[in-house]
DNA sequence: CATTATATTGATGTATACAACAAATGTCAA
DNA sequence: TTGACATTTGTTGTATACATCAATATAATG
């Protein structure tokens, strides 16, 4: 490399991992694309070593598949992968609310109830709060394995937001979040857990419906089952 | 490298990953050890590239920690890690029995009931069947994320077997397995699921007690909390 | 003797050259 | 035209040299 424009403290491999992942979940790199290491080297301004490291991690997270001697394939979003992702969420998140919700101070829940009731938040901010809320319960579990698997799926879920952003479900979801937080304050953990389950199932349905609808008019690269 | 004794079809990075992992879970490399890439290169007869790849994967599975500029540390087995592992198992496995148990043919369950009733099986064989039985439900889920996370923890659990092998709980566990399989045949999924939960909790207790006992007489490198 | 500054060491991070291999392409013959 | 076969191309797999940085040892100085 000629000149490193910036010598950040982060290692290149970490940087490569984060930016590549970001490009994938934001659909800047389209699902189904096949890339080569060289392309990624150029894209990320790094040599093959950190790029390979990043790709290897992304493969373990099921975001890409390495096809030896053929290329690096960005995994498609299939109906099956939606099923998998929400299966995990439906198992993990309600359990986290039930078992670890009481580790979170009431003040935190109170802050969320306020935020979930505010209207006209910028979309970006709204989603950030949303993600944070869900993440919070997993973090509270203080369990590396829960955190690992949730990190995998949370990033995947971001990809769906590109599809369904600014939909009519946004404010319904806010209300569901509100109810969950409110019941956490009241110590109604079982109810909160059930509401979380319902909320996630609703999200899944919304995505499934959206995908089925837009799949009728062709022109999308998202669906289609995983081939080969 | 001078001479490759065998040019197996497997890639070196895959081979390095598997053998290194095997050495760790079998405690051939003791928990708490700090290694360097060079040591691993020599041990695995490979250059740094495949070794780094292997270590990177093992880090994601929480088996080792890479301390930049210091070395590769084989994570210790702490009371906290036991808690984490069994937390995952208690959530995942009973749910898998309940939701996916009916995907497994009765003949399979019947075969297991026979095997769990056989006495005087070689220890190794006994454990193999045991692992296979537990794994089966996760595999039946047909969910990549469940399989990933279970692969992580299953390997870790193997390490505990080095500690507690041939203990008095072995035949009790076999009986518990029998009851689970028998209830799966009868279609009593909820009962089977509860029995699975109980079985896992019993296993945890046995390990915890064992660890606490042997911890009194010093001489073990397994426990001790993770430092730094 | 203590303490600070400096030099050395040794570890991973990074870049890159080379090997191996599979797919694609083109050529020649039937 | 079509088939088989050789060649070329392009990709990842592997080895290794070099860069970087932190910890440690060492020496000089108050």
Task: Offer a few descriptive terms.
homodimer, 228 residues, mainly alpha, Arc Repressor Mutant, subunit A, Four Helix Bundle (Hemerythrin (Met), subunit A), 2 domains, three-stranded antiparallel beta sheet, 9 helices, 3 strands, 68% helix, globular, disordered N terminus, DNA-binding
Concise summary:
The structure is a homodimer of 228-residue chains. Chain A is mainly alpha-helical and 228 residues long.
Low-confidence stretches of chain A: 1-8, 224-228
Helix content range of chain A: 55-70%
Given this structure, which CATH class of the largest domain in chain A is correct? Mainly Alpha
H-E string of chain A: HEHHEEHHHHHH
* Proportion of beta-strand residues of chain A: under 5%
What is the H level of CATH, i.e. the homologous superfamily of the largest domain in chain A?
A: GntR ligand-binding domain-like
Strand numbers in spatial order across the main sheet of chain A: 1-3-2
- The tally of strands of chain A reads 3
